[in-house]
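Annex B. Sample input.
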Amino acid sequence: MSQRLQELRARLQSDDPILLAARAGAKWSVGRMQLAYWGQEHAVSWPALEAVRLAGGHPCGTFDTAMLLYYLATADGTPPVGRWIGFRELPDGSFYNQAFQGYSGEPLARAFSSRPEGLEGAAQEMGGSRLVGIAPFAWCFLPLPRLPLAAALWPGDDELAGRAAVLFDASASHYLPTDGLALLGSGLTGRLLRLAGAG
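Annex B, continued. Sample output.
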């Protein structure tokens, strides 16, 4: 991972930081870009490209730093489309859709299909906004400034098992590669389960 971080930094350092910030929906001030990541403000220094969580000034770990740098390196400024798609509709997503569903939608369905109020409480605690027309229970989250995710739940009954899915705005591949989106979706599932005491 450290090798990949070095490659990302070299790639980003060859670009204009003001344009990088604009494409990513980050705020630029001399020496840093500031953006929200999972609801907390973070700063990415320039040109060192080290990531810090502003509350407390704690440096980010390798994983979160990599996610932020991948986002900055991929972001091209495309506005969100407002159309939700499944993982299989992402570039090369059909190859990994079953695995992704296995660690994202299926755990959500197991935890919440018989108690959707648990998902609702966790979603509200995470600052999610309710979505209408996608599923009986669905919430939108903004883990990165221009990269919305949704958690959708179709509760089960006596005849049908419940199901759930993590969904992406159709513009998602303009902000992270597919493997990065898989990690972000997994992160959403993990956060919801932990907040509901189910993970």
